[in-house]
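We modelled the chain as a single entity of 182 amino acids. Its sequence is:
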Amino acid sequence: MERDWLMALDFDWRVTRIQEQPYTLNYVHQGRRRRYTPDVLATFAERDREWTVVYEVKPHEELRAKWAEYRPRFKAAVSDCRSKGWRFRIVTEQVIRTPYVGNIKFLRRYRDLPEQEMHSRALLYTMRALGDTTPQTLLAATWADRERMMAAIPELWRLVARRRIGVDLHVPLTMATTIWLP
């Protein structure tokens, strides 16, 4: 789950920095010194604003079963984060095991592919003519030849991953998903 959350953060264009197990917090609970190391720290930037969020990634059932044990460390983390102007968030599979993260996992493999300029130009040209459409319709409107359509699929998903073609990442991506030019 933590790896999937790191992938989701890495895909978020607003994230400027990610640190795994960024620091260890010392705190006192019931008269004893304790230590807590959160899972992830992410710094975001958008427009002229920057903010930092510290994340703990845990399965929902584990949180329920061990809440009494975890609560003091989370309370210390919230206090520590507030003192630094940061936020503290607990993330479970209810956030991670979603179509959004599944889509990101799918698109990440296309994001850093080298551009296929001919395919890219043709797809974007056709998108401007069609307006909102689907990947299936876009490919069919761009090429009549099935081989060329198939060869252009990686470039289509690369354009989506690089946000040159828009899509709602909160619904499962298919060849029938609505796409648009941002």
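As a brief sanity check on the tokenised model: The radius of gyration is 21 Å. Residues 20 and 40 are 5 Å apart (CA to CA).
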